[in-house]
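Below is a complete specimen:
___
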Amino acid sequence: MFRRAGTFIVRRLLQGLWILVGIVLINFSLLHLAPGDAVDVLAGEAGAATPEYVADLRKQFGLDQPMPLQLGRYLRKVAALDLGISFRNNARVIDLILDRLPATLLLMGVSIALAISLGVALGVTAARNVNQALDSMISVGALFAYATPIFWVGLMMIVVFSVKLGWLPGNGMETIGADYRGFERAWDVARHTAMPALALSLFYVAIYTRLMRSSMLEVYGEDYIRTAF
């Protein structure tokens, strides 16, 4: 049993490795198939870039080398988890990712928790009031949440709740310079997280609501449900 489980795990890991290699190769190919390169972008942002400056940038990024050498260098750095240097931020890419990771995990975690809890609650409520006004309201709301672009919802929430009403902050993770501690800081972070987390969760709230409603209605007439009630 353990041998079969070990074989299965190893096989899955190897499959995942090949998929990862394929993604890396496709990513590398798409970047080089697109017109221009990173040096052209940076030179355009600089406004007036001399040919010597452009050539120096290409040498610095290794873009003056043949394609196979560039691919080998790229694969070697990816295998070593070396994501390179951000020329615009003048910092290592891995440091930039790690610096933003706590805020990203917080926002993602709150959004997922909201999506699941609201989706389950609304789906159960709609199923228990099927073909009634409350069911219709929830279904229409879920349809609008599913069809409305998230970026537009976020912008409208900023306009209404931040600019017009002033209830919630419109940007950032916490108030800069406030130097809050303990509960005050947690409350400040929660107020900054509320709007973006709700905006990100609405699409999945709609999906979970419809799934929960259909699942409830599917089993609502089963014998064990009627017995329980």
